[in-house]
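Same chain as my last thread, 215 residues:
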Amino acid sequence: MDKRVTQLISFIRKNIVLKTTQNPISVFVVIFSCGILFWGAFNWSLELTNTETFCVSCHEMRDNILPEYKKSVHFLNASGVRATCPDCHVPKNWFDKVVRKVGATNELMHKVIGSINTREKFIEKRLTLAGYVWEAMESNDSLECRNCHELTYMRTNNKAHTRAVETSMTCIDCHKGIAHELPAEFIESEHSRYERENTHCGNCHAGLAHLQEDW
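reply #2:
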């Protein structure tokens, strides 16, 4: 080992480590400071991965998802208020955010093995991937949507929203295609199911005036 490195280690041991361990207050200060540094680094890493720039940094998202998102009302609208990727896919409160981030580690594995590294693979798995998101939002009452929206605070004559409040529906029940294209298989299967159940089109298409006349 280099002599200068040995001298540095010896200096740190004699003047910092030994003196610190001999003073309980110093020990507390060191541990407290390390805790703050760790907590800051942890939260910094959370926020670093909680940006639209990070979300579309891989070509799978940039090539397949970003173009659709740019056509949506969440990207460009009259108010100028944008909902970015994490606004819709990551809860705001800390505990649920960490749970979501831990779950996202599975996505890193699929990035490595190339599960959707081509457009063809993405289209083939699209319904499955969308299903994971819809299932999660159904289970937490569309918590991500309620980062910005809350039905009880809306001033609206929208009958679909009124029905949603009365029947405890959740946002994702009707708004599955709000920011991304719906998988073709889903559209076909859902329309067939609605026809079998005699569900009125206005349940999801409340904005269409000619449908509202029949209510």
